Amino acid sequence: MSALAGLLEAIVAEARPQAARGTVARYIPALARVPADRFGIAVVELDGSVHASGDAHERFSIQSIAKLFSVTQALRAIGEGIFLRVGREPSGTAFNSLVQLEVERGIPRNPFLNAGALVVADVLLGAREAAFDELLAFIRERAGSGTIDVDREVLDSERATGFRNAALANFLRSFGNLTHGIDAVLAFYFAQCSIAMNCVELARSALFLANRGVCPRTGERVLTPSQCKRVNALMLTCGTYDAAGDFAYEVGLPAKSGVGGGIVAVIPERLAIAVWSPPLDPKGNSLAGSFALERFTTHTGWSIF
Ligand code: GLN
């Protein structure tokens, strides 16, 4: 067993019990049914070596982690123009808050808020013929896995209960910051949230962010070095919602989380790491997942600081 694999085993043993202090997301009923005791962790290095432990090969709903891929696609499609319609400041409010959007007249603080992701979806719908299919193809290509797909049960659940997202979309539209119909934007958004991936796939798919924008598996340039640096900056400052400051303090890595209990993080020039444990802390980040990442950076001494 490699030293890294041994470390991951030790982290799983230490982190798994922490999950008991968290709560699985219940506002999307299909997520509430996922067994709370699942715990997976995977590291993929730039040379492609994989180290994994626990339930690292079981797929789960990536939820807001999809926002990382959609903002990447939007940057590829129209570049910095997206920042005329969405900001890049941490919000200090919950990812699905309505209040700030009203005060700031329909310009979401950042693309990792639900409102920001709805604007990004609108950008992609305007820039691409088959926008969602392209997003899915992009994720499959980055992960090296053609079977990654939308989980239909989660999608139905999102659609049936996404009243708050519908409210955000209506708000955005009323301020003129959506150009497509609300139903089309929500359909795109719900579908991206419902994509299912496992920890190995997630870590592999984020490797271009650890490699100055080039996918190390295919050699394809996904982002310019400058765009890559900027997406990492957004992850650090906004990727874990209104806990981004705490997360930077504890873990010290650019990361993106989702309410399915996944977190993917990047160590530039070295590796990407993904964790999954469904119970969340009050801010909506995986409780044991955040704990595990803190252990990882503390044990290895690797962080961006
Ligand atoms: N589908 C979820 C929602 O729209 C995604 C939120 C998240 O992962 N933070 O509320």
Provide structural commentary.
- By secondary structure, the protein is α+β, with helices and mostly antiparallel strands.
- The protein has 13 helices and 8 strands.
- It has one domain (about 5-300): DD-peptidase/beta-lactamase superfamily (Beta-lactamase), CATH 3.40.710.10.
- The protein has helices at about 5-15, 30, 65-80, 100-105, 115-125, 130-145, 150-160, 165-175, 180-195, 200-205, 225-240, 245-250, 285-300, and strands at about 40-45, 50-55, 60, 150, 195, 255, 260-265, 270-275.
- The chain has a 5-stranded antiparallel sheet with strand order 2-1-8-7-6. Strands 3-5-4 form a 3-stranded antiparallel sheet.
- A hairpin with a 3-residue loop joins β7 and β8 (about 270-275).
- The mean pLDDT is about 95.
- The structure holds glutamine.
- Glutamine binds next to loops.
Q: What's the number of structural domains?
A: 1
Low-pLDDT regions:
none
The quaternary state of the protein chains shown equals single chain
The overall average pLDDT, rounded, is 96
Write the H/E string, N to C.
Answer: HHEEEHHHHEHHHEHHHEEEH
Cα(first) to Cα(last) distance is 29 Å
Which key phrases capture this entry?
305 residues; alpha+beta; Beta-lactamase; 5-stranded antiparallel sheet; 3-stranded antiparallel sheet; 13 helices; globular; binds glutamine
Could you give the topology of this structure?
Blueprint (H helix, E strand, L loop, with lengths): L2 H13 L13 H4 L7 E6 L4 E5 L5 E2 L4 H13 L20 H5 L10 H14 L3 H13 L5 E2 L1 H10 L1 H12 L7 H12 L1 E3 L1 H7 L19 H14 L5 H7 L4 E3 L4 E6 L3 E6 L10 H14 L5
Antiparallel strand pairs: 1-2, 1-8, 3-5, 4-5, 6-7, 7-8
The site of glutamine has 11 residues, from loops.
